Amino acid sequence: MKNKFTKFIKIAVVAAMFLAAVFMRIEFFGGFGKDIYAYEKSVEDILTGVNPYKWTVESYSNPDDPGNHGYAYLPLLLYLNSFFYIISKLSGVSFYVLSKIPILLADVGVGILLVKYLYRKNYAALLGALLFWFWNPYFYMKNNYVYTDPLPVFLSLLALYYLDKDDVLAGVFLALAVAAKPYSIVLLPLFLLRSQKPIKIIISSALIGFALSIPFLGSWDDFMTYLNGAVFVHEERFVQGRPFLWFISYYGKVELVRIIPVKFYVYASILSAWLFTSIAHFFFKIKEKYLLAAVCLALFYFFTPVLNRTYMLWIMPVYAITMYGVLGRKLLLYYLSLLSYWVFYYVYIYYWKEGFHIWRPL
C-alpha cells in the first residue's frame, strides 16, 4: 500500500508540473513575434498558388533591410501554419492562438521524453530536468510564447530516442526536425554512424524530404526557388543576434572574427560537428549518442554567426540527459550542472539585451 501511495504521489507531482507548464504557456497564446509577417505572407502565398520562397530570395537580396526576411526554412512549419490558417478563417479563432497548438504539444512532448528517459532511473533527476526545460531562461525572462523552437527540439529528441531502436523512424524524425529548423543537420553523421543500417536512415529521410517538397516540383524554376529560399540563402547569412565569438570579440576586445569571412563560420558550425563525430566514433570509440549530440550542438553554437536568443533552447533536453549519463547518481552535481547552464543562458541573454546585426562587413 505504501509503495502504491508513493507511486501515486510521484505521478501526481509530475502531472502537476506538466499542467503548470501548459497553463503558463496558454496564458501567452494570443501574442505574436516579429516573424509573424513572414509566416502569414508565406501561408497566404502558398494557399493562393504563389511560391512563398520567391519573396524569401528577394528579401535576402536586400542588404538595406536585414531584419525583414521571408520564410527561410524547409516547409514543415509552413504546412502546419497553413492548416491552422484555414481553420482560423473557418472558425474565427485567432491564427495566433491556433498556430501555437503544435508548439505546445511539442513542448509537452519534450517533457514526456524526459520522463521516459529518467523516471525509472532517478525520479529526483527527472524533476530537475523538467524544471530545467519547462522553466527555461528564455520563457522565464521574456514571459511570452512566440517562439517555435520546441517543435524542432522535440523532433530531434525523438529522432535520437529511436536511434539504435528503429532506423526508419530515426530517419523520419531527423528529416522532420531538419524541415522544422535545419540545425539538426549537424547530427547527420551521428545517425549514419550509430544506425544499424544507414541506408534505412538515408531512404526514410529522403522520402520525407521528397514528400515535403512535392508542392514545389511543378517546374524547375519553382524547385530552384524553393531550394534557394529554404537552403542556399543561409550561405550568405550576416552576423545576427548574439554569436559567441562575436560576443567575445566585441566585449573582450579580442579580435577573433573579422579577419576571416563570415561564410567560413557558417560552414565551420556544421563541418566541425561532423568532424568531431567522425573522430569520436572511429578513434575514441565514443558511443553515447546524447553526449555526441550535445557536443555537436555546442560546436554549432561556438562557430555560428547567427545565434538568436531561443537557439540556446535546442541543446537543453539533450544536455539534461547527457549530464545524467555523465554524473549518474551524483544528484547534487547533476543539479549544479543544470543550474550552471540555466544561469549561463540567463546571464548571456540578459547581458547582451540587444545583440547586433553586421550585414555589410568591411
Automatic annotation (TrEMBL):
Name listed for the protein in its UniProt record: DUF2029 domain-containing protein
Keywords associated with the record: Membrane, Transmembrane, Transmembrane helix
Membrane listed as a keyword: yes
Residue spans crossing the bilayer: 12-32, 95-117, 123-139, 169-192, 199-218, 264-284, 291-312, 332-352
Membrane among keywords: yes
Lineage of producing organism: Bacteria, Katanobacteria
